[in-house]
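To illustrate the input format used throughout this study, we show a single complete record. The first block contains the structure-token representation of the backbone; no residue identities are included at this stage. The design step must infer an amino acid for every position from geometry alone.
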């Protein structure tokens, strides 16, 4: 191994220190960027889609790793980042089953803010093993093929058949408290801290776009499920 000897205070020594400091700083920056990408999934939501509308209204910057603990009165703060996408569904369900005020309690989780009962039924409906990772693809699948298809079928009916725009808009307000129903009010306004802030006009625009995108994709030859998922803003998985 070659060992370099520089006189302290010499230009050569200063250059050596600077180069190593720069390499170290770049390494730290790359690690921080990688961590940020891991903990802030969700920014790949196509503009104007239902997926993007839900990201903006419910999940926020943490996207697929967004969560809350349910109680602002006694639960531990939800400000600390959690890498939910690296956890199994079984782990998520365990933390969701903990009693209120538990320091590790999870309530609504992920990009689509899925609550315990909804996740339990989604897992059974889609036949997802407990060992399945709560990845972005899995969360998108739950959204497209359980939340919007099975739990709130009015959304599926509108996108695929073009029937019931009002019902689809109401279904979205019923599933996510941040959205106003067609009557201008949130379904859960006044229930705890819930207050709808996103207008039904924006919801309607996203629904119309989903229907138009679906028809366009079907015309291009995509199968119905792929066209449907893509129209919602997700990739079929």
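Output of the design step:
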């Amino acid at each position: 191994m070659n060992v370099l000897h520089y006189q302290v205070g010499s230009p050569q020594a200063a250059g050596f220190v600077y180069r190593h400091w720069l390499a170290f700083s770049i390494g730290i920056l790359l690690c921080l960027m990688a961590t940020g990408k891991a903990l802030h999934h969700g920014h790949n939501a196509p503009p104007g889609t239902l997926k993007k509308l839900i990201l903006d209204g419910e999940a926020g910057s943490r996207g697929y790793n967004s969560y809350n603990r349910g109680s602002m009165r006694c639960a531990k703060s939800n400000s600390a980042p959690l890498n939910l996408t690296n956890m199994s569904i079984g782990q998520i369900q365990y933390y969701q089953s903990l009693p209120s005020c538990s320091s590790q309690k999870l309530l609504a989780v992920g990009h689509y803010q899925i609550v315990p009962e909804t996740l339990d039924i989604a897992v059974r409906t889609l036949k997802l093993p407990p060992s399945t990772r709560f990845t972005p693809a899995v969360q998108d699948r739950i959204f497209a093929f359980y939340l919007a298809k099975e739990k709130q079928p009015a959304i599926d009916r509108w996108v695929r058949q073009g029937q019931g725009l009002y019902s689809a808009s109401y279904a979205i307000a019923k599933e996510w408290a941040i959205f106003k129903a067609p009557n201008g009010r949130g379904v859960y306004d006044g229930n705890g801290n819930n207050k709808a802030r996103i207008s039904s006009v924006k919801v309607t625009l996203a629904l119309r776009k989903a229907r138009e995108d679906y028809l366009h994709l079907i015309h291009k030859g995509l199968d119905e499920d792929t066209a449907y998922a893509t129209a919602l803003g997700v990739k079929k998985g």
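Structural context for interpreting the output: The first helix runs from residue 11 to 39. Residues 40-232 form one domain.
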